[in-house]
Amino acid sequence: MDWLPAAAAPLLGASLLALVLLRRVKARSAPQTPQQPRQRRILPAHVAFIMDGNRRFGAKRFGPARRLEGHAAGGRKLGEVVDWCLRAGVAEVTAFAFSTENWHRDSAEVALLMRTFVDQCSEILKHAREKRIRCDVLCTDATRLPADVRAALETLETETAFADAALTLHLAVSYGARGEIASAARKLAERVAAGEIDAGDVDEASLGAALALRSPPDLLVRTSGERRLSNFLLWQMAYTELVFLDKHWPELAEDDFDAVLDEYARRQRRYGK
């Protein structure tokens, strides 16, 4: 500071020190902005799940003799996954709970699954009322379901018919996609026979409107390492993004789901363009 008068130099130094201290005080007292959640470029509106690997999880966790206990663990996991979807902003979830092909399993396992469905319907109903989740059942062969299972599923639908639902959960029980498509075709054929529509009016739009599920999933997640659709939503998933995970369904963690959403956001959906 040779260019300043000697008397002015201490004053300037004191002023600079005061300015630095003032800035530090302001920085400490400034309100902290809360960390914002990570924004994703694209979010699926509708996610479908093939909840595979319950028996394998049961054998791994409880031993081969108790492998069927994995089904109850799988039912509990569905409630967790629905909560993850709610937090992420997903509007629809479709869960493949029991296929028409599953009726060919051992009768003891089928009976256990039916009891599990009744128990899980009660749990899902409590959860749905609390979170305002609308439940919808997709079933292409209801005649084979025991009466108590049908009653539990009907109650679930009736008691959760929220007009302002935060999320819609579609439960596919005794469901097969080929049967769903055949049923839709039969409905249209009956309308043609009744003179309500002409055969020439039957197109993709009319067939799609006759299906049990009209909303196509944006994303399918299948667990347990299997890489096939297993007669699930064959019509609706013509352009669905598919993600296959090696974990068994009850082992799925929220971090896994976040990674799946990130993978979905990285993909480009061209629809043939």
Automatic annotation (TrEMBL):
Q: Which UniProt keywords apply?
A: Signal, Transferase
Q: Does the keyword Signal apply?
A: yes
The record's Pfam families line, in alphabetical order, gives:
Prenyltransf
Give the signal peptide, or none.
1-27
Reply yes or no: does the keyword NAD apply. no
Which Enzyme Commission number(s) are on file for it? 2.5.1.-
Q: Which SUPFAM superfamilies match?
A: Undecaprenyl diphosphate synthase
On the tree of life, the source organism's domain of life is Eukaryota
Family statement = Belongs to the UPP synthase family.
Q: What's the name of the protein? A: Alkyl transferase
Q: Which organism is it from?
A: Aureococcus anophagefferens (Harmful bloom alga)
